[in-house]
């Protein structure tokens, strides 16, 4: 088995985890930079997947399974957005080209994202795997994953003998989460879009490792380890619920001001507050996980709320006790001018329960 993105935290954890699988003879870990963490007994090979040398690695080690984890919204090194896009798109192209020429390859697993659906005001309440986005992503990581999945579909047509599994992960969180959304939620004060309270889904890091293990093995009776699957924990949380559970106050701003603040935070290196993240924090996104359960046979150990609780515990106390934030949010939601502006008083109550599908949108 060959695993890309081994220098990343998630890739390193998967490399260490999969070595304990009796079905895996050996693991070849690949990245352009040396990892800062242990890879156990895996053999690490310095190789940039953007270069043709990756084909030689596949041939030399007679690889039969490729797990492509080097698709990310953040750079593993000091490179900026250009380097991230090159690794995501050009790197995937080169890797797939190498796999196409490698006759021993029989299984390909690709880490994708629910970002492929985008976030738009007229989105459906729940996205299924075959639901087309209302508005195709125009840039950023969302556009990267759209292009990556396009190349993967082309590879699947050219190599029908290879089982291809694409996993569209919701926002990945946990004690060691490293993503733009995790950076945003770690801010002492959360800038939000005035009048909106988006629905969010999360998937726990440990569940990510478990489902990658399932997808990379031969399918068990009654399951199918090929196709495209949404991966997320049960349930949803509103952004306001996330803020109160973290004990962090929110700063509602008009959309132009949020964009300006996002640019300032990005320049300061505090978080990658990209336009696509602003759209997520405006309109939210929820996906169906029926196929994950019924076809792939995977049942997450953590719900969305439990995943967020694990993340929150790793963040330490916020500026204010969660109950104080909750009372302030409830008083603000009950204000008549807020209700007239966007129905925020109907979004969530004092008990923090989730709304009906479609709530929180304008």
Would you give an account of this structure?
With 362 residues, this protein is α/β, with parallel strands linked by helices. It is built from 13 helices and 13 strands. The strands form four sheets. Strands 3-2-1-4-5-6-11 form a seven-stranded parallel β-sheet, with helices on both faces. A two-stranded parallel ribbon has the order 7-10. It has a two-stranded parallel sheet with strand order 8-13. The C terminus is likely disordered.
Helix content: 25-40%
Low-confidence stretches: 337-362
Radius of gyration: 21 Å
The structural class is alpha/beta
How much is the average pLDDT?
86
Order of helices and strands: EHEEHEHEHEEHEEEHEEHEHHHHHH
* Fraction in beta strands: 5-15%
Overall morphology:
globular
- Overall strand count: 13
| Separate helix tally | 13
Ends: how far apart?
A: 47 Å
Sketch the major β-sheet: 7 strands, parallel
Spatial sequence of strands, sheet with the most strands: 3-2-1-4-5-6-11
């Amino acid at each position: 088995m060959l695993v890309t993105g081994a220098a990343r935290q998630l890739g390193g954890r998967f490399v260490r985890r999969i070595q304990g699988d009796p079905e895996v003879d050996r693991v070849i870990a690949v990245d352009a930079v040396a990892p800062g963490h242990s890879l156990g007994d895996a053999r690490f090979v310095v190789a940039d997947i953007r270069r043709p040398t990756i084909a030689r690695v596949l041939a030399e080690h007679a690889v039969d399974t490729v797990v492509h984890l080097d698709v990310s919204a953040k750079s593993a090194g000091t490179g900026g957005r250009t380097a991230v896009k090159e690794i995501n798109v050009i790197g995937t192209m080169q890797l797939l080209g190498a796999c196409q020429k490698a006759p021993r390859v029989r299984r390909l697993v690709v880490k994708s994202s629910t970002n492929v659906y985008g976030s738009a005001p007229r989105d459906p309440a729940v996205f299924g795997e075959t639901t087309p986005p209302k508005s195709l992503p125009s840039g950023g990581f969302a556009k990267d994953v759209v292009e990556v999945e396009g190349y993967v579909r082309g590879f699947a047509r050219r190599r029908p003998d290879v089982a291809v599994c694409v996993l569209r992960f919701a926002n990945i969180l946990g004690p060691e989460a490293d993503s733009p959304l995790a950076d945003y939620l770690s801010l002492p004060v959360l800038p939000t879009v005035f009048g909106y309270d988006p629905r969010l889904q999360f998937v726990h890091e440990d569940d990510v490792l478990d489902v990658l293990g399932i997808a990379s093995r031969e399918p068990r009776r009654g399951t199918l380890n090929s196709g495209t699957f949404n991966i997320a924990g049960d349930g949803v949380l509103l952004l306001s619920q996330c803020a109160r559970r973290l004990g962090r106050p929110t700063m509602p701003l008009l959309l132009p001001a949020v964009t300006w603040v996002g640019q300032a935070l990005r320049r300061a290196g505090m978080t990658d507050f990209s336009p696509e993240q602003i759209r997520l924090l405006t309109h939210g996104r929820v996906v169906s996980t029926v196929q994950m359960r019924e076809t792939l046979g995977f049942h997450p150990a953590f719900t969305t709320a439990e995943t967020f609780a694990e993340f929150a515990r790793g963040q330490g106390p916020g500026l204010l006790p969660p109950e104080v934030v909750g009372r302030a949010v409830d008083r603000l939601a009950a204000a008549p001018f807020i209700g007239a502006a966007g129905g925020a008083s109907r979004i969530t109550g004092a008990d923090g329960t989730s709304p009906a599908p479609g709530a929180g949108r304008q």
